[in-house]
Specification:
Helix content: under 10%
Order of helices and strands: EEEEEEEEEEE
Shape: globular
Strand content: over 45%
Number of strands: 11
Radius of gyration: 13 Å
Oligomer: single chain
Largest sheet: 7 strands, mixed
Length: 123
């Protein structure tokens, strides 16, 4: 069983930064960060392969968001810089125990989910 506990959301002005944390218990191969804004579908933001370190970012966050992992703390991070109004959403970390060479960006491929943390960007 995998348990994920998220933290780090909050309110920030446009252009600011936030770092989300996801403490992971249990082994996983792929970690994903997703977000869902009201009235919109859940969107894959970034992925992190725990074995290879390979990362993926959706186009809208490339160059602004960075995912990383601290194995000693069993924690995955999402550093979000230059935040925009359109980044406002509930953010979720997710995990998959299925080995894949590349981590998927679809929420359907992830079996374990954190509770979510709200990120609100204001002007």
């Amino acid at each position: 069983q995998v348990q994920l506990v998220e933290s780090g959301g909050g309110s920030v002005q446009a252009g600011g930064s936030l770092r989300l944390s996801c403490v992971v218990s249990g082994y996983t191969y792929c970690m994903g960060w997703f977000r869902q804004a009201p009235g919109k579908e859940r969107e894959g933001v970034a992925t992190h392969h725990t074995s290879t370190g390979t990362t993926y970012y959706t186009d809208s966050v490339k160059g602004r968001f960075t995912t990383s992992r601290d194995t000693a703390k069993n924690t995955v991070y999402l550093q979000m810089n230059s935040l925009k109004l359109e980044d406002t959403a509930m953010y979720y970390c997710a995990a998959s125990r299925t080995y894949r060479r590349l981590c998927p960006s679809s929420s359907l491929d992830y079996d374990y989910w954190g509770q979510g943390t709200q990120v609100t960007v204001s002007s």
